[in-house]
Model the fold of this input.
Amino acid sequence: MTSHAVAAPTPRRFSLDNRYLAPILITLVLVVGQLSFGFLESWTRTALAIGTSILVELVLGRVFGGAWPHLASAYVSGISVGILVRSPEFWPYALCSAISITSKYLIRVDGRHLWNPSNLGIVAMLVLASDTVASLSVQWGNNLLPMLVVWFFGSIIISRLGRFHITLTYVASFLAFSVLRAYLTGNPWPAEVAPITGPMYQLFIFFMITDPKTTVRSSKRAQVAVAFLVAAAEAVFRLFRVIHAPYYALFLVGPAANLLEILYNRRAQRLSPEK
Done:
């Protein structure tokens, strides 16, 4: 009997854990946006948001999971809050981050998250503290280079994570609905499409709507359908002049889609024959 030695696979010289890709991309958004427009309220407020997210994640991860959690998700949530929240006070940044991370542990159905953490935290602050909190509304304007830089690296990273179809569907749907809104309102089309060029939307399309923990799991087709529905709901909100339309659209559509999928899976399990 002849034995054949199996060659061991050649290790990669450099392989980056996928969990670090989102933190790298969101840091790029922060640096590009800050260097281009200085869009942060302040570095200290952003640091407070990030620090609070990490601290709450460490505590709750240890309490509920019995182990120290990986902090990539907390960093992304914290920096999202630091970029998107606008307030002259410091406490909204800490409170928004705390709400965002806490929701991951307390609001679950069948072990699944329903809301994107930073989306839920920001909507909560916009509703409960509207006299103190607003959201980032800066647009890149005529200087499209920063957006192109973010889109170039963002597309590569999101594609590697297998989520680019969600981003692409939302953007295509937004553009289509912007044409419809321009027709219905009489506004010039550039005015309707301009918001998607802003840094807020870069966070929204690359992070919030693509979050693996809070998107439906059944198929890419289902994920594409949900992305389209988020864009459709946002278009309706915009027709009614709702300022924070994308946040509210995702806040309503995302959890509803997750709940429907969870209920469908429960029913399928009940009807499946016992092995």
